[in-house]
Amino acid sequence: MRMRPTLSWTPTEDLPPGTTDLAPIADALSAGGVLVLSGAGISTESGIPDYRGEGGSLARHTPMTYQDFTASAQARRRYWARSHLGWRTFGRARPNAGHLAVAAFGQLGLLSGVITQNVDGLHQAAGSEGVVELHGSLERVVCLSCGAFSSRRALARRLEEANAAFEPVAAGINPDGDADLSDEQVGDFRVVPCTVCGGVLKPDVVFFGETVPPPRVEHCRELVREATSLLVLGSSLTVMSGLRFVRQAAQAGKPVLIVNRDPTRGDQHAVTRVALPLGTALTTVAGRLSGSADGQAAGGGRGGW
Questions:
Q1: For the chain, what is the largest distance between any 2 Cα atoms, rounded to a whole number of angstroms?
Q2: d(CA 121, CA 94)
Q3: Which alpha helices (H) appear in the chain, and where do they start and end?
Q4: Cα dist. 104→45, 155, 202, 227, 282 in Å?
Q5: Which residues are identified as catalytic?
Q6: Considering only CA atoms, which of 79, 78, 29 is closest in space to residue 230?
Q7: What does 149-174 look like in DSSP terms, one character per residue?
């Protein structure tokens, strides 16, 4: 059974207001065993817009669904034309202060794991290890017929050769690497097939309306069971793929802490939501925890907030 795409969420009840107090975040990290769950909001400072925040891409762009992609050759042409152009910009994105702070938490031994809903690979580029890519990665391509995997860079070269004159200017880039192009700009873009069997190629990402592979979900559930607390970074938690882990943690009595500028679908389960820019907030926490670790090694205390 496939998930019904959930593109928006409107609060239906009074939610706790956001705070600027970083002490609960620092305290949870100091205790160790924190599982991070990140969303598109952590990559906005790298130049990749999120879906639902201020200026989010859903205001101008409807993401490709699995059903449309598999049912329509024209939809696949439109997707690959837009994604091919977006890949050039997407591939130039670099980790920002938020990604670097998460990597620092890991290096300090404060994390039990990192789950990301993003497909941009920026956590790994920042130095985080063992990242679970809940929705897959744009770095890989899979054939829907034979299941063969290949690299996105290899596909990009093939698409360049097949569409040498394709040089439109995109109106914007989206969190899934898809660029904003009109049908006229897409034109007669040529889609290339699988080199193994000639089948349909798809990025190895979970489209809206597609389910996350069950083994991956179970692995994430196990990470939640093993964690001391769950720290959500830059996710509205609109889609169930991430919200279910928040609900699992809360039901198990594990503290859920959220850093997100706007209210989220998981706020009712959280002990706190910090409404600050992620880069600033996480850098502040990482700096103080790093200093506190040095101070403790020298016989000092953690200090106040």
A1: 68
A2: 9
A3: 23-31, 66-71, 73-90, 97-107, 122-126, 152-162, 183-186, 214-226, 240-251, 278-297
A4: 18, 33, 34, 18, 10
A5: 135
A6: 29
A7: EEEHHHHHHHHHHHTTT-----S-B-
* Burial status of residue 164 (CB atoms within 10 A of its CB: 0-12, 13-18, 19 or more): exposed
Query: What one-letter code names the amino acid at 123?
Result: H
Q: For the chain (length 305 residues), average pLDDT per consecutive 10?
A: 49 79 97 97 88 46 84 93 82 92 97 96 96 95 97 94 81 63 81 97 92 96 98 94 96 98 94 96 93 47 42
**Half-sphere exposure (CA, 13 Å, Cβ side) for 211?**
9
Tell me the pTM.
0.86
Residue 283 has phi, psi (to 5 degrees) of -65, -40
What is the residue whose two structure tokens read 């598109």? Answer: 40
Q: In terms of C-beta density within 10 A (0-12 exposed, 13-18 middle, 19 or more buried), how is residue 210 classed?
A: buried
Q: Which conformational region is residue 143 in: left (phi greater than 0), alpha (psi within -120 to 50 degrees), or beta?
A: beta
CB burial string 40-54: b at 16+ within 10 A, e below: bbbbbbbebbbbbbe
End-to-end, the C-alpha distance of the chain in Å comes to 48
Closest by CA to 302, choosing from 29, 101, 100, is: 29
- Which residues are bridge partners to 114 per DSSP? 36, 131
Please state, as a whole number, how many other Cβ atoms lie within 10 Å of the Cβ of residue 183: 10
Q: Rounded distance, CA 291 to CA 268, Å? A: 33
Residue 208 gets which letter from DSSP? B
- CA 92 to each of CA 22, 48, 50, 113, 279: distance values in angstroms, whole numbers, following the listed order: 31, 10, 17, 26, 19
